[in-house]
Design brief:
heterotrimer; A alpha+beta (387); B alpha/beta (304); C mainly alpha (233); B: Rossmann fold; 2 domains; elongated; C: mainly alpha; 0% strand
Amino acid sequence: MNDTNRDGSSRGGPNDAGAQPAKRPNTLLWVALAVFGIVGLSLNAFMRPEGMAKRFAVVTTVERVLVEETVPAAVEESPAAVAADPKSTQDPDPRRKWVAPEDAGLAAGTLRRVDGVEPIRWETRESVKASEAELLRSEIKPGGPVRIESSPIDSLGIWVAALLTLFILSFVYRDNPFYKVAESILIGVSAAYWMVVGFWSTIVPQLLGALAPGFVREYAMPSLPASATPGLDAALAFVPLLLGFMLLWRLAPKGGWISVWPIAFVIGTTAGIRLVGAIEADLMRQLVAAMKPLVVFEEGVAASGEAIRMFDFWGSVGSVVGVVGDLSVLTYFFFSVEHKGAVGKTARVGIWFLMISFGSAFGLTVMGRITLLLQRFEFLFTDWLNI
Amino acid sequence: MTTKNTEQTPDGMRGFFVRLGRLDRRWIFLAMGLSIAVPILLKLRFPEVPGPMARATFDSIESLPDGSRVLLSFDFDPASKAELQPMANALVHHCASKGHKIVFMALWPLGKQMADQAIKEVLLEYHGDKYEYGTDYVQLGFKAGNEGVIKVLTTNVAEAYPTDASGAAASGLPLIADVRDLGSFDLVSTVSAGYPGAKEWVQYGRESMKPEARLTSGSTGVQASQLFPYYPAQLNGLLVAVKGAAEYETLVTEKYPVDRNSERLEQGRIRMGPQLVAHLLMIALIVLGNIAMIASRGTQGGAR
Amino acid sequence: MLRRTIPMLILASAGLLLIVAKFSPFTVSWQETVLGWFNILAAVAFVLGAGNLLAVNLEQISSRRPGWAYAAITLFAFAVTLVVGMFKVGAVPNGMHPDIHLAGAHDVPQAPFGWIYDYMLVPLTSTMFAMLAFYVASAAFRAFRAKNIEAILLLGTAFIILLSQTAAGMFLTGWIPEDSVFSFLRLDVMKRGITEHVQTAGMRAITIGIALGVAATSLRLIFGIDKSYLSKT
């Protein structure tokens, strides 16, 4: 194959050195973009007095001391009475509690500190922007329990959030390892997050709290209400416990069929709930709402001052349109009859109504999607870059 | 990012539109990005004229006697926060300005955090001196079970929420100690991004409320289409997307202005500025795409 | 019996109980109990999902299939979030019971679990959904073709809604008086007409159709006609 022209210059081919310059502009572009980005971010972060992604924290020192009542309780509550009354206190020793050192009861003498128990101190931190921190600094008294300090952990968080956002957005150019890393993190974090939330909000109070209420109160939820029928609750709680184990058996290599029992329970419950809700709200109520008067009148006042009813043209048009729309769309969805003749024409009108509905839905959807992207840009510009 | 397949391309304006039809979609992505980024940087804002649905929502809350008991359900997560947090914030500010007693709950796991944000940024910021936890407001938090939670609320609130979000016994909180079921509330309002949300509240909760009680909803644009049939017979008010949020914010802040950190109640209106440019871009893209289709008729390798 | 009959009985019992509970006050407490069990199983389903995630990703790592490093990242992120959440690592003590560690608040931003939520989960989830804006724009350019009457109706309606939702609507037609004969030409009036009458009618019919479908499917499941959930047994 002749790779040279008559004057000896290279004709060009896939392996020809002449193809290399075409790749260099792309690489140069990315290098220039990277350098510009790093220089720009560095200047923004270090040269501007307000910096970027700087977060502060309002730190409040909290202290609690263990106290007990000095005044004896008027009525001693037996454990049975405590269990029978859901409104009764659930603390193991109801006369002891943790309060702030400046609690009025200590000063009044109705409470006294329990000997031998050290106070517990901790700090609460509320993240604020640099601009808010400046405003708050002037309002906070020095030397008090509240102070403002810089918060490297929150500043790091802003950087992590911004980088993860950019990693995901990089997918619009093309798939790349940064996007894949961000996607992997999202999958792992969200699965664990939902599991933790489900555990602490439902499994602990409703399942473990019924099976072993004393244990849960002592180690996790001291304010868990006492049940009037703890024995019955514990017995009944074995049902969801057993069903839950059966559901998890789905992961086992053998015997996964046992998970059909809890799945059947979930499906049955859902079917029962949905049936009632669908018929009541989506069928009956919608049919009632669809039955509108075709001729609409509105209240008005005659020239003589007398109250009269006047024909409302646009209201009537709206009613007619609504009724025609309801009937024609329902006709379109009735597939048991062939869409020919009058039925076919009515169904065609129904399709037009549906197209207008979908066009409107599209317009509303666009607004929603744009708002999502807008919010991410707002975060990048205001919280991260601080411009 | 280059156009390809220039064989059989006509000349002139027609050829321009044919080539436009083959445009690499990454240029479109760039245009969309710029149409949102530039207005944000330029801080474009426009006045909002409230529509009838926003007014109905406003009137539903405004017409309640001061100090009524209301239930606010935060049924969304950070993915929809941009559209729904503004209406949630305005809702909380409106209820608190009327002195209503507010019970917060969530049907979505991350909805509790959304409610916490509204409590911190609006309720405690503007009304912290009048609102005491347990007496004036309570945060019940998230409960798993979707519409099952609503069903339980229709008969026994304490069964669904024996404790509040922090683990304190519900029976010890004066605001909800005597609440039996949904009939105890004068208003139920859901800020909803999907399932479970407004539809489920209408289907399972509406019938158990008092006849004179109100049910309102704030919804994303995506979900709003499914909720139109319920308005106004079953939903007394409906806020649709960030536009509904902006309109409602306008009504609330006109009646109950704030003297600090006002941007917390202006997020909906702030976000409507870039919406204009992006919407015009969408219209332009549809028009150009169709012109490209017409121009490509009869050419080989026409517009897709 | 164990694989088919008992699950069908469980399904029918649960479904019928919840239907009867709507009409009978005597079964309300049973309904509350059953729904409580449902809520617990919903929470256990999260555990099932996490378990499945572990199984899939561990298998990918052990077999060293392409992309196994990403599976390792997934598992690492999962493990860290699970540990700090389950054991409430760094939780803010409960003001009423500061001596009980597990009574503390782990979902506040200052705790590691809350930090992960605020600075990792929120930006990742939000950005994933935000990407849809780009794809909507691309779809508008490439796929929305006015080739027939139905498509023209759809696009025309979309134009009206898109314009009326923004300040452009007021700019273009806001000057037409609301009480004039030509008020129907105002974009906001057109939008109201479309959403309150045409779209409502369309969506109402769809809603009624869905309700009938839900009722039919629920009854088929409860009466054992539909046994698709037993397909693997």
